[in-house]
């Protein structure tokens, strides 16, 4: 058997290999997509929360400056007031922090699923190997990441330049504006520039996610030998699987032969096929095939039917159609209703005549 290392990994990863990769923390995840989502939704959050935040921060600043000019205070009082102000600022910014964390967790989970991987958190000392680290530094993945970062900087820089350049006329008109107008324009201009940059990052994030997905699928590919070994490990050797299938066939045959005595009729080829049918008008909407077989199994079905006094009817076209199109336990298809109904009608009529003759003979004997 050829060494796995010499074989090309051309086979798609099996579910077991994917599960093993997930346990090790190997998933397709794009940090660029996380960054885009945090910046985008964080900016939208600030757009709606900015008036309230500005009002609260202004109140804190007024209170701080008022206390500064209220008179001399001790060092302990100053530290206490600063801590109070800092705590109030943290409370004001807490919704933004929590929203950012929630967004980051949601996007990360959407990419790879919400699953904790202890194995991925274990320290890996082989990463301290300088030779392997140097090799990773000049690997194909590192080159792609370098190109991605260069593209990212170029894209952001270009978009930022044109976005700021588009606002130049507005900035020129601020020469005679008051402070409130300057702050309002600056805030909205910053928002417009930021949104343009973030939308540019979205394009980069989508491309990065596609690459991460492709790279992950490529990294977990398997050789043909690995697929065979995994199949053998989980389902047994080919000999064992063959034996299991053989036992399953034997059990199915035993179940079928047990059902033959319950049949209303056995339709034959007449030599190579046999199909047993059962029909109860009160419980069944259509006749059901309860057993079928070819060659030796057909002979077995016919033998059991004779011993159980089940009528055997020769009908070559119907036997072939039923054997080819209907599995055991299934109802007869609509296109065969008429042919099957004629056979069942003949069998039921024959059974009724036989019963009538038996009854008449019994009454004659009693007389």
Structure report:
The chain is mostly helical. The protein has three domains: 85 residues, no CATH class; 107 residues, no CATH class; 108 residues, secretion proteins EscU (name from scop), CATH 3.40.1690. The chain contains 13 helices and four strands. It has a four-stranded mixed β-sheet with strand order 3-2-1-4, with helices on both faces. The N and C termini lie far apart (86 Å). The model has no long low-confidence stretch (mean pLDDT 78).
Please provide a brief summary of the model.
This protein has 367 residues and is mainly α. It contains 13 helices and four strands.
How many DSSP helices? Answer: 13
SSE order = HHHHHHHHHHEEEHEHH
| Overall form | elongated
Provide the helix percentage.
55-70%
**Going across the major beta sheet, what is the strand order?**
3-2-1-4
- The CATH H-level homologous superfamily of the largest domain: secretion proteins EscU
> Architecture of the largest domain, according to CATH?
3-Layer(aba) Sandwich
The description of the largest β-sheet is: 4 strands, mixed
What is the CATH class of the largest domain? Alpha Beta
Q: List unreliable stretches of 5+ residues.
A: none
Q: What's the topology here?
A:
Layout: H1 15-23, H2 31-68, H3 75-112, H4 118-121, H5 130-137, H6 140-166, H7 168-172, H8 179-219, H9 224-235, H10 238-259, E1 265-268, E2 273-278, E3 288-294, H11 296-307, E4 312-314, H12 316-325, H13 337-366
Parallel strand pairs: 1-4
Antiparallel strand pairs: 1-2, 2-3
Helix pairs in contact: 2-3, 2-8, 6-8
């Amino acid at each position: 058997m050829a060494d796995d290392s010499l074989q090309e990994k051309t086979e798609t990863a099996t579910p077991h290999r994917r599960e093993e990769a997930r346990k090790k923390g190997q998933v397709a995840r794009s940090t660029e997509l996380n960054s885009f989502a945090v910046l985008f939704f964080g900016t939208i959050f600030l757009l709606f929360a900015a008036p309230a935040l500005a009002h609260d921060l202004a109140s804190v600043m007024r209170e701080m400056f008022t206390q500064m000019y209220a008179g001399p205070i001790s060092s302990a009082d100053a530290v206490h007031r600063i801590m109070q102000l800092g705590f109030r600022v943290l409370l004001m910014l807490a919704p933004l922090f929590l929203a950012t964390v929630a967004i980051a967790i949601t996007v990360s989970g959407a990419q790879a699923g919400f699953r904790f991987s202890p194995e991925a958190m274990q320290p890996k000392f082989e990463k301290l190997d300088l030779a392997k680290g140097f090799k990773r530094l000049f690997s194909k993945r590192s080159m792609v990441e370098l190109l991605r970062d260069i593209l990212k900087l170029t894209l952001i820089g270009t978009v930022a330049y044109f976005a700021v350049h588009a606002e130049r006329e507005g900035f020129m008109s601020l020469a005679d504006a008051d402070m409130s107008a300057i702050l309002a324009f600056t805030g909205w201009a910053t928002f417009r520039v930021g949104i343009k940059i973030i939308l540019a990052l979205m394009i980069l994030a989508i491309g990065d996610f596609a690459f991460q997905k492709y790279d992950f699928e490529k990294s977990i590919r398997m050789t043909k030998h690995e697929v065979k070994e995994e199949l053998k490990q989980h389902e047994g050797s080919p000999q064992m699987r063959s034996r299991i299938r053989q036992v399953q066939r034997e059990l199915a045959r035993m179940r079928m032969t047990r059902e033959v005595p319950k049949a209303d009729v056995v339709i034959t080829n007449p030599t190579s096929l046999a199909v047993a049918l059962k029909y109860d008008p009160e419980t069944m909407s259509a006749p059901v095939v309860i057993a079928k077989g070819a060659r030796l199994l057909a002979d077995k079905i016919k033998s059991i039917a004779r011993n159980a006094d089940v009528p055997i009817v020769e009908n070559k076209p119907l036997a072939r159609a039923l054997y080819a199109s209907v599995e055991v336990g299934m109802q007869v298809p609509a296109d065969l209703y008429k042919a099957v109904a004629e056979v069942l009608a003949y069998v039921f009529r024959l059974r009724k005549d036989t019963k009538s003759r038996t009854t008449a003979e019994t009454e004659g004997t009693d007389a």
